[in-house]
Amino acid sequence: MPAQTNTDDPNGVIVAAWRAESARLVGALTRMTRDVDLAEDLAQDALVAALEQWPATGVPQNPGAWLMTTAKRRGVDHFRRTDVLRRKVAELEHAPGGEEAQVPDLEAQIDYIEDDVLRLIFLSCHPSLSADSRAALTLRLVGGLTTAEIARGFLVSETTMGQRISRAKKTLAHAHAAFELPTGQERTDRLDDVMGVIYLIFNEGYAATAGADWMRPDLANEAIRLAGILAALAPAEVEVLGLQALLELQASRMPARLDSDGAPVLLEAQDRSRWDQTLIRSGLEALHRAERLAGRGQPVGRYFLQASIAAQHARAERAEATDWRRIAALYDVLATAAPGPVVEVNRAVAHGRAFGSDAGLAVLDALGEEALPDSPLVPSVRGDLLERAGLHAQAREAFTEAAGRTKNEGERAILRRRAQSA
């Protein structure tokens, strides 16, 4: 193993190493054992060994290699101890390309390892799983989050989340899900599922659907990290780069989304000097790379278009400088590329800002009263448009209706405040 070094906070290093390396560990071990449940157990065993040994012996110079070597040795011990499929021992000890000898030097096999991470992402988002199960399993296997962390993020008990993750693994086993990268149309479909799960995780962190917190930064930040991993693994995909750009540009506003008292602040009232300029630069760079690919003929979709919209906000130093006509045009394209009621509601906002409240209300009215019946989105936007049109009594009614629909306490407080001031 690599030489040891001391550190003032070995437990902090362990947590950081686990978060950075867990996907590679579980991915490589799944490839070797063809058993995702066993792979996760072996990786967890290596983590426990680190927690026991590193505080006393010091942190290895290459923590990831140490964890990989330890996990593989535990795998060899497992197959020997259980006397199941003895040939697996030979596979683990003599992996293709002399892998056992190369494990301490992960740089020498980075392409292979990263392929394992991509396989793991696709496996976590297998079509046999529900959207919620995909999100939970992705956070567990690829994100390296504990069951308790995932449960807190989605406001369920640790027991409930543990059962959900366990059922997801059993579903994969029963479906005989292959640990291989899909090809052709299946790859295209699965990649969209993967991006959808990452976006779901981000949205729950950026604007929580329920509970006392307006945002859950840990979930949003984990989604950004996953999007970055996916962009590094699929750098020639317009939509993957679009997703990375979208998440980074939206997340750049998070420091300004709460005031000094912890109350939510809406977009147009935010102090834009507090927006994270590092995230904005990174997001705009990812969007620029996507634009270059699109210029060579690659088709664009929902994430690229939404990132292009977010970029309009990011480039406006003041709310009054926002190019709402450009945003409205982009939403018109998005409504064709990815039609749906949420897109139409946001298109109503854009048209209302660009062309006046009546134009926005016309888009909203075309949706029909049955659209998003349990969501506060439609009445809250209607209230905003009515207030801008000077129809204050109707705006109060709409904001009050929206407040009654939301399950998030921060959003409810905003809507009640707007109802009172309309």
Explain what this protein looks like in three dimensions.
With about 425 residues, the protein is an all-alpha fold. It contains 20 helices and 4 strands. The strands form 2 sheets. The protein has a two-stranded antiparallel ribbon with strand order 1-2. The chain has a two-stranded parallel ribbon with strand order 3-4. The N and C termini lie far apart (about 65 Å). Mean pLDDT is about 85; it is low at about 1-5 and about 95-115.
What attributes characterize this protein structure?
single chain; 422 residues; mainly alpha; two-stranded antiparallel sheet
In total, the number of strands is 4
Measured by DSSP, the beta-strand proportion falls in under 5%
Query: Which bin fits the share of residues in helices?
Result: 55-70%
CA(first)-CA(last) distance: 67 Å
- What pattern of helices and strands is seen along the backbone? EHHEHHHHHHHHEHHHHHHHHHEH
Report low-confidence residues grouped into runs of 5 or more: 1-7, 96-113
Shape: elongated
Rg calc: 24 Å
Number of helices: 20
- Find the structural class using helix and strand composition: mainly alpha
Kindly report the average pLDDT value: 85
Strand order across the biggest sheet? 1-2
Biggest sheet layout:
2 strands, antiparallel
